[in-house]
Amino acid sequence: MTNRVDSIDVKKAEAPTPGRFERIVLPHLSAGFTLAMYLTGNKADAEDAVQEAVLRAVRYFPTLRDDDARAWFLTIVRRVCFTAYGTDHRGADVISIDTAGPQLVDDRDQPDTATSRLQVQQRVRDALEQLPPLLREAIVLRELQDLSYAEIASVTQVPVGTVMSRLSRARSRLAGLLHDVVDFGDVA
Asked: pLDDT, tens digit, for every residue of 12-34?
């Protein structure tokens, strides 16, 4: 009789939990879209990439080992962008990201403050566009998506030391490009 109870418990454990995918993966759609925008360079391709990533995530959901789906889903988005949409993650092609990113303007700002803020925001976007794709990717994942170094290493499939190196180089280049806009102090 004990064997029958054990086999029933095993079947319960193997049965998918209704709504688990929606609870675990779907909250990361926005993060996936932001990453896709920075990697593909346009809204239409980013939307298509995220849609393809969701389809792949549904298909491979049983392979998710833990409930940290953010890094897992962003890895899928990254792969879709680099393969299906021809994003050159090795070269120096500049990808336009004009339509990406949140608006930094507070409606309560004075017109001159809002204009100044928009100018700084555009300068930062222009500087990001000048970074090589791998450095831009590292900055987006760390500073916009707030991923840890270990999560970035998981998403990009490189060692943590490489992530740290890419972030250091990206920050240094951004500091050089934005030296007249923001005082970064000592970035080296």
From this structure: 444 456 788 888 888 899 999 99
| Cα gap 153→166, rounded to integer Å | 11
What is the 8-class DSSP label of residue 61? G
Give me the amino acid identity at 176.
Answer: G
Cβ neighbours for 31, distance < 8 A, ≥ 6 positions apart: 70, 73, 74, 145
Tokens of 21: 């995918």
Distances in whole angstroms, Cα of residue 63 to Cα of each of 32, 56, 60, 72, 155: 19, 11, 6, 10, 15
What pTM value is reported for the model?
0.64
CA distance 37 to 46: 5
Q: Which alpha helices (DSSP H) does 41-110 contain, by range?
A: 43-60, 69-83
- Which range scores top for mean pLDDT: 90-99, 102-111, 148-157? 148-157
* CA–CA separation, 118 and 40 (whole Å): 23
Rounded to whole angstroms, how far apart are CA atoms 99 and 128? 13
